[in-house]
Specification:
By secondary structure, this protein is α/β, with parallel strands linked by helices. The chain has 17 helices and twelve strands. It folds into two domains: 289 residues, TIM Barrel; 64 residues. The strands form three sheets. It has an eight-stranded parallel barrel, surrounded by six helices. The radius of gyration is 22 Å and the shape is globular. It binds iron/sulfur cluster (2 copies).
Length: 406
């Protein structure tokens, strides 16, 4: 099997899993040509599939450009967007205040507000009530529709358990101050499995897009939540904007197939093809982003078979432009000392494409001892297992040397 055939085979599963969502398709039946797609939640509520992420609002002189941002929110609401997502730390805490300023002029039952408890910031159980009350005050709300434990990973989950955070949230739910309890997640699927099993969560928020489906094990995370019927709110649908700014070959394939469609619309429509998606968050910072998203989601059209095949070819082209041609097949694992070979290569490829040294260094720093490029002892056991014939120890040494200079 040559490299191209291998890549084709490894990507076939992406297409197979991206069968159109029956619920979504059904819901779209009868909708007007320009109606925002909504998803039924808990039987009665209708959540707009496009959610407004309030973490990248337009800014001017270091402050939220309140006039422009408010106009974008107004336009979004007029077009049918009803899900707004903020958090304690977004825009240095100013996102919550802005949400209060802009949303409270609308009837309370016309929008859903999601906010998040900063688990990593908690010191004692007393912080729970203090921060929660502060959030209600800043957003000028009597309740949150969706409330999440923010950025759960193994360490934050341990803290949430120690401080009985879930019980606190249940009390708030009983008081009518929270309607739905969820969490956002950034860690391995093994950790997610444990968290998902711990409580009857109403929803969960994970990073999902057509590249991370394999590269960051998002498929495994998606499967864990879907198996438990936990509706998914998607973050990073454009992978930090990179799927709206594809390498040349991939970009050309999508443009040839559909000259008028934006690259971002392919990424959103891919997600709309998956069942169990409640909402796709987009951190819109310019009116053009909003206008383009409204075109895509009003209503959204899941990818058809032909488009899925074209997207798979574009994913192939995307991988072919990578600095290390790793497809994340994981055949090289386990490494006897525990180097997470594909994750190191993915982080490095991301860095070479984005030039974001800070993120690359943070990713390497988050690895446990021996999981990063420093762990490699050049035993060579991984090399014969790599279908891409990557000289893995040499590449790890190159990455190590490059990282040391950053
Ligand atoms: S060569 Fe390095 S990465 Fe490969 S198996 Fe040995 S220690 Fe692990
Ligand atoms: S290094 Fe090779 S074997 Fe390992 S995940 Fe990447 S492509 Fe697969």
């Amino acid at each position: 099997m040559d490299r191209r055939d291998f890549l084709k085979a490894s990507l076939a599963s992406t297409a197979a899993l991206a069968a159109p969502s029956a619920a979504l398709a059904q819901h779209q039946d009868g909708q007007d040509a320009k109606t925002m797609t909504t998803v039924a939640f808990k039987g009665g509520e209708k959540v707009s599939l496009l959610g407004f992420g309030m973490m990248r609002l337009p800014q001017k002189d270091g402050e939220i450009d309140a006039t422009l941002a408010a106009k974008m929110v107004d336009d979004a609401i007029k077009a049918g967007v009803n899900y707004f997502d903020t958090a304690y730390f977004y825009i240095k805490g100013k996102s919550e205040t802005f949400c209060g300023d802009v949303l409270t002029k609308y009837p309370r039952d016309s929008y859903y507000l999601a906010d998040k408890l900063p688990i990593g910031h908690l010191k004692t159980a007393d912080d729970l009530e203090r921060i929660f009350s502060e959030q209600l005050r800043k957003t000028r709300q009597s309740h949150f529709d969706f409330y999440l434990m923010h950025a759960l990973n193994a360490a934050n989950w341990k803290k949430a358990v120690q401080l009985n955070v879930y019980d606190f949230l249940l009390r708030k739910k009983a008081e009518g101050k929270i309607r739905h309890i969820g969490f956002s997640f950034h860690d391995k699927p093994e950790v997610l499995e444990k968290i998902a099993a711990a409580h009857p969560w109403d929803f969960a928020q994970i990073q999902l897009n057509y590249i991370d489906w394999k590269a960051y094990r998002s498929k495994e995370q998606y499967d864990i939540l879907t198996k438990r019927s936990i509706p998914i709110v998607v973050m990073e649908p454009l992978r930090g904007g990179r799927l709206a700014n594809l390498p040349q070959d991939a970009a050309r394939m999508l443009a040839n197939a559909s000259p008028d469609a934006s690259q971002a619309s392919w990424a959103f429509r891919y997600l709309a093809s998956l069942p169990n998606i409640l909402c796709i968050l987009s951190g819109m910072s310019r009116p053009e982003h909003l206008a383009e998203n409204l075109r895509t989601f009003s209503p959204i059209r899941p990818l058809d078979e032909r488009e899925r095949r074209i997207l798979d070819k574009a994913i192939l082209a995307y991988h072919n432009t990578l600095s290390v041609p790793c497809t994340d097949c994981r055949y090289c694992l386990p490494c006897p000392v525990g180097v997470l070979i594909p994750r190191v290569f993915t982080a490095y490829n991301d860095f070479k494409m984005s030039n974001n040294a800070r993120r690359f260094k943070a990713t390497l720093a988050a690895f446990d001892e021996d999981e990063g490029p420093d762990g490699c002892i050049r035993c060579g056991k991984c090399m014969p297992k790599c279908p891409q014939h990557i000289r893995i120890p040499n590449e790890l040494a190159r990455i190590r040397a490059e990282a040391a200079k950053l």
